[in-house]
Design goal:
Blueprint: E1 2-11, H1 15-27, E2 32-35, H2 42-52, E3 56-60, H3 87-96, H4 101-118, E4 125-127, H5 138-148, H6 169-190, E5 199-201, H7 211-219, E6 224-230, H8 241-244, H9 247-255, H10 260-266, E7 269-271
């Protein structure tokens, strides 16, 4: 049996990307999404998810925008302007030991409780830039998820063995190092009875996506349940570089391909959500 969860990340980051995600869930092959709690469109996205009973998880964010916790209570996570440290700055601060564990715990709890209040029970958890697999973060997040009854999580340990296209060496090295961290984090989450999928795909496709590569990836899916991470959107002239990247529309269009459901069925793949784990 081969089962596939197609998850669209960053729901709520902006109106154009959120609209594209919901379109891909209603008309395409996306079966799941994760809501980022602290962005301009987050509240509208969460309300729609609750109203329409859309399967959605929480996209924990500690690296972009404003926190949900008062600045004085989590200051080690913030820059001089009061915003989250960038991904690179946070990694540096974690290496230097200047991040306080209780600050991480407070903000994670605030984001989870925001999700409960606005969208309901999350189907699963992942995070912005995979911060949840960092060796400092995972032991803090595990017991919090268990306490809130969130029993499923993303493990971004991507295999490149059957990849049908070439990757730049730097990209390959990043995916392999992420997979190493993910496998270590998985053992931590498993100790709290938090489940994950058998396989994960998406990073090798990100930034290089097209319809042909997606079909090649699907045709080579291994047995078991695989999560495919995607980032569909429409061009957002007011967004950051990622949101303005034409790849957002390329991903949206390939996920809306009307011939794709038949292709998936012909390969014996069942589309499912995290609730089916």
């Amino acid at each position: 049996m081969r089962r596939l969860i197609v998850n669209a990340d960053d729901c709520g980051v902006s109106a154009p990307r959120t609209h594209a995600i919901f379109t891909c869930m209603e008309e395409g092959i996306v079966t799941s999404t994760t809501v980022i709690p602290n962005m301009p469109e987050s509240l509208n996205a969460a309300r729609k998810i609750k109203e329409r009973d859309i399967p959605a998880g929480i996209h924990i964010n500690l690296v972009e925008g404003s926190a949900l916790t008062p600045e004085r209570d989590i200051h080690s996570l913030l820059d001089t302007r009061g915003y989250f440290l960038s991904k690179e700055k946070l990694q540096e601060a974690l290496t230097q030991g200047s991040i306080e564990a209780e600050h991480v715990e407070r903000e994670i709890r605030a984001q989870i409780e925001w999700f409960f209040d606005t969208a309901g029970m999350p189907t699963h958890c992942d995070s912005h830039h995979n911060i949840h697999i960092h060796p400092f973060i995972a032991p803090l997040l595990g017991p919090i998820l268990a306490r809130y009854g969130i029993s499923r999580i993303r493990t971004p340990a991507e295999s490149l063995e059957r990849l049908s296209w070439e990757l730049p060496e730097e990209r390959r090295a990043y995916i392999e190092s992420t997979a190493m961290l993910a496998r270590a984090a998985q053992s931590i989450y498993e100790s709290f009875d938090i489940e994950t999928t058998d396989h994960y795909r998406g990073m090798a496709l990100s930034g290089m996506a097209n319809a042909r590569k997606l079909r090649n990836l699907l045709a080579a899916l291994p047995e078991g349940t695989t999560e495919l991470m995607t980032h569909p959107g429409t061009c957002d002239p007011l967004g950051d570089d990622f949101s303005r990247n034409p790849q957002r529309e390329t991903e949206r269009n390939m996920l809306l391909d009307p011939e794709l459901p038949a292709f998936i069925r012909s390969r014996g793949i069942e589309l499912v959500g995290f609730g089916d784990l």
